[in-house]
Amino acid sequence: MTKLIVVVGATGKQGGSVARTFLGLPGWRVRAVTRNPESNAALSLKDAGAEVVQADLHNDDLTALKAAFDGAHAIFVNTDFWETYRPAAAALIMAGKDAGPAGRQAFDYETACRKHAADVAATIPTLEKFVLSSLTSLVGGSLDPSKFTQSFHPESKNWGVDYIEQHVPALAPKLSVIVPAAYNTNRLVIPKKMGDNMYTFFSPVHPHIHVPTIDPETGMGPFVRCLVEDEPAGTKLLAYDSNQTIAEAVEVFKRVTGKNASMVPVSTTQMVAAGASWEMLRVVDYINEHDMYETGEPGYIKPSQLTSPPVRPSFEEWAKTFDWDKAIEENAGR
Prior knowledge:
Blueprint: E1 3-8, H1 13-23, E2 28-34, H2 40-47, E3 51-54, H3 63-69, E4 74-77, H4 82-94, H5 101-121, E5 129-133, H6 153-167, E6 175-180, E7 182-183, E8 192-195, E9 198-203, E10 213-214, H7 216-230, E11 236-239, H8 246-257, E12 260-265, H9 268-273, H10 278-290, H11 292-295, H12 315-319, H13 324-331
Parallel strand pairs: 1-2, 1-4, 2-3, 4-5, 5-6, 6-11, 7-10, 9-12
Antiparallel strand pairs: 8-9
């Protein structure tokens, strides 16, 4: 029997990877859910064989979402916090105000989307696996945003997990969670050009702390396949291609580019004083304190613990194919 996976966020990096992976698997058909079925990414998925449907998770009218989920055996959901946060923060900054409230605004938007997805998925009788892309909480998990301190991004992701486990009993036994590591193109691993053949990594992450990375466009799909096909429902996975410290990432950069590079430690407080946001940096303090990907996170498994771990490129293998000069130029104005 051919099974159906519904991919929410299919035109994004994570969802696109999941859709393309399952389009290449026997026994599966793919329904891609997007707000704009006429976008280039949506049309590309359609050309590749996906069924493309329109639905908006934030819409209180759930008719379109129910139709999108109808008949699903597996559902993958990813939602975008930064899409709401960035324009809201920019507007506050332009008005001479603190950008902090933008985090709460993005939290409210994203959690509404996650609630709608969970509530509708719970009504689908054919559903076997519900895979939610998430982050781990910095405060131990809570549905009460008053307990968060300056960083709503990880909490809005984890809110969806807590909501399902605590309030959606029909869906909770089908829930699996994937927490992707930092994207390979994260600014933490892109240096600044300081002079002729001189590059500096300004890092708020301590040199010995592990910052695993993933190429979401090729990596999320294979990891989600493991959760859907191989692992029991209830599995929670820290997903990464490679696990290295920032100091090791600097050495990789030097080897693959032949450029001179050094690492300059900076504190998160210094970065905020220079104009960065706690919304983006509070998680760095958490990583520095816990080194979670090396020591492990309670309740989560690592890729090596999967039944059949996907073969993924190391950070160095990926770095050899990456356009570093272009990324460094784009990072220059940030």
